[in-house]
Amino acid sequence: MSDFLHILDILRPYVAGIALLSGGVIVLIGASGVLRLPDFYTRLHAAGVTDTLGTLLVLLGLILLSGFTLLSGKLALVGLFLLLTSPAATHAVANAAHKAGLKPRLGTVKSQAPGEASGDPS
Amino acid sequence: MNGEFLTPIDAFTVIDLIFMSMLVVVGIAIVRLKDLFAVVMLSGVYSLVSAAWFVSLDAVDVAFTEAAVGAGISTVLMLGAMLLTARQAAPTKPARHWVALIVVCATGAALLYATVDMPSFGDPLSAPNAYIGLEYLKRTGPETGVPNVVSAVLASYRGYDTFGETTVILTAGLGVVLILGLGGPAIKRKKAPAKTKAAKANQSKILGAHHVVLRVISKLMIPVIIIYGAYVQFHGDFGPGGGFQAGLIIASAIILYALIYGIDAAKEAVPPSLVRLGAALGVLIYGGVGVINLLLGGNFLEYNILNPTHPAHGQELGIMFVEIGVLVTVASVMLIIFYGFTSRQPDIKDKDW
Amino acid sequence: MIFATSLLLMASMSLMLVRLLRGPQLYDRVLAVNSFGTKTILFLCVFAFLIGRSDAVDIALLYALMNFIATIAILKFFRYRALDVALSRTRRRGEAR
């Protein structure tokens, strides 16, 4: 048993590194999605989904690095808050855009003129 | 240029440079954009980036304040102010203001010239680091027993300044009250509910389902935010934080409640009269600590006298009470301003946003 | 490793900044601000390890709370104006979009 724990302890920084880097890469992918996808709702899904997973991975990596301390508790708290607020904020943005009458762009990308599908009808 | 440019560029310099260029980009965008909503958002981002940059410069307390003020409260308050004004910047005529250009260029050149004489970052021989800074660092521990030097300097050594600042915040709240009214219930809203109470309750039940996600999440978050505010308040002796930041955090928790459950509900929970009382009470607490010191035979805001056998404990006690005064005033004034801005218009219905 | 992560996060922050500046809808901007905030929080956490000061995590914690409030505020106040809930004297002038 203690051997097993020892091995885990040796592996810990590597796992942390993998989690950190993959989290960073996922966040970067999400960011490029937000930049490049054609309309608001697709951008929203790029940001919302990747932010949650990437955040958790990065924080997991940091928690693994720091071990069982006050710092890791704080990091877990940050993760919990983000896990609660980030999807809620994404939901709120999507809801507000939908309420304002923003329509998603349908059809293939080429079939519509570049630019936005519709403005908010306020 | 004390050899600063001879050192190889390290990782932190890269991070600093990236942040500074982000700041420049955001600043230029703020100047150029006409949509005021976008400008408010950009200024929020500006303070986000600058807070991250302050952390990288090891100025954690400043970063903390910037985080609390810039990202949270000032965004909300500016948006609230925009309820009362236009949404787009007034178009200005594209004229050439040569005099202004010359003044700006001259000032910029003078500032650039002045940077040559600035000590390089972290220079141990520069004036603030060598004399007064060292003195504070040396004396804070034994004299006040507060590990965070910034808190000690703020509340004890510079107690008069902080008292002045608290009074300034109270004055700002008074100014808003004078211009925008007391933030009581608007007269218009009284007319609207012609329906019976039961119908109204029924309606609100149906409408409540609309924002069920936000309601649940905010119900989870608001207590946590307030507890975090208390942590910031009482942990300010050890880490970054203190009365100002804690006041802002607690005020923003109530603002979140007002945003999601409606301003009337927030006014029932935290009535404007209480808030007005709190704004004055905080300054009274701060000044009262000073007066107690006077009555005990010390100087104004000389906390040592609070515990004659152990002056450092007196300092801790005084700093704690003073920070509570700051907390009460700051939180109350922020809410006064928020209520003042938002009470001028009837609240938006739940199903409309 | 930590530094590489922080660079990745900063790169995504700048991408988000581009989206924030380009708009075109207000909602795109809100999305970008919110996401930018999340990335800043992550950056602060990572940066705390880089400089070896745990204080930065406190700031990240504060942001995690504030970011949400700011997002909600922007959305709500935007609808206020969009619906034009009376009383403001300036009619909607440049309602171009």
Description:
The complex is a heterotrimer of chains A (122), B (353) and C (97). Chain A is mostly helical and 122 residues long. Helices cover 75% and strands 0% of the residues of chain A. Chain A has three helices and no strands. Residues 111-122 of chain A have low confidence and may be disordered. Chain B has two domains: 1-130, Four Helix Bundle (Hemerythrin (Met), subunit A); 148-353, no CATH class. Mean pLDDT of chain B is 81; it is low at 1-6 and 186-194. Chain C has helices at residues 2-22, 26-51, 55-83. Chain C starts with a helix and ends in a 14-residue tail after the last helix. Classes of the chains: A mainly alpha (122), B mainly alpha (353), C mainly alpha (97).
Mean pLDDT of chain A: 82
Number of separate domains of chain C: 1
Give me the Rg of chain A, rounded.
Answer: 20 Å
The computed structural class of chain C is mainly alpha
Total DSSP helices of chain C = 3
The count of DSSP E runs of length 2 or more, i.e. the number of strands of chain C, is 0
Regions with little confidence, pLDDT below 50 for 5+ residues of chain C: 85-97
Oligomeric state of the chains present here: heterotrimer
Count of domain modules of chain A: 1
